Amino acid sequence: MFLSRTPVLPTPEQALPGRAEPEFSVPERHTVLGNPLLGPYPEGLEVADFALGCFWGAERKFWQTEGVWTTLVGYQGGITPNPAYEEVCSGLTGHTEVVRVVFDPSKVSYASLLKLFWESHDPTQGFRQGNDVGTQYRSAVYTHSPAQAEQAEASRESYQKVLTGSGYGEITTTVLPADGTRPFYPAEAYHQQYLDKNPAGYCGIGGTGLSCPIGVAKADG
């Protein structure tokens, strides 16, 4: 029913039950950066979670960024525990596709990552990005500290002014804490660094062409 009409998030009663443990394993290391995908991460590194459409192209944006130690893709912000990709795509888990970015703040600031996030997609589209339609493509920032939350909210307000001035609508991006109610579930092995394994693979990432007035972008995409 979620694919036959305008996408809507499921209620807890509608959501798939999921499972207590994941039904697949995650590779040990990043195919490009060579570092471990799963924590614990080295002292001094920070974690950021961004949802900006199909996570294949989104992840590449971040792993190409100087100061990023590792990246991995997964599902966040939903109801179903340990979901599988097909379940997320059904619209019945409530998750969105997310890139987890582990970065060295002495080399790249969280503000710079926010700038890259905003400029790499159209955050006004609701449950879609371009031709990709579904609740799993919604824009979101899941924060790991009060400082991240403050910067994310401020950047959203700043970018809204830019977008409004160019005729775009309201930003639909949610900014929420990545706490125990919004766990990050790593995606299947074949999704991790997908565009490194499949250089000619699908990439639906594309921004508005408008600059976000925060930070300094470090990646060329």
TrEMBL record:
Catalytic activity: L-methionyl-[protein] + [thioredoxin]-disulfide + H2O = L-methionyl-(S)-S-oxide-[protein] + [thioredoxin]-dithiol; [thioredoxin]-disulfide + L-methionine + H2O = L-methionine (S)-S-oxide + [thioredoxin]-dithiol
GO molecular-function term, one example from the UniProt record: peptide-methionine (S)-S-oxide reductase activity
Positions of the catalytic residues: 54
Alphabetic keyword roster: Oxidoreductase
A Pfam family hit: PMSR
Domain Peptide methionine sulphoxide reductase MsrA: 49-203
Function in brief: Has an important function as a repair enzyme for proteins that have been inactivated by oxidation. Catalyzes the reversible oxidation-reduction of methionine sulfoxide in proteins to methionine.
HAMAP family per UniProt: MsrA (MF_01401)
Name the record gives this protein: Peptide methionine sulfoxide reductase MsrA
Record organism: Streptomyces tanashiensis
Chain's gene name: msrA
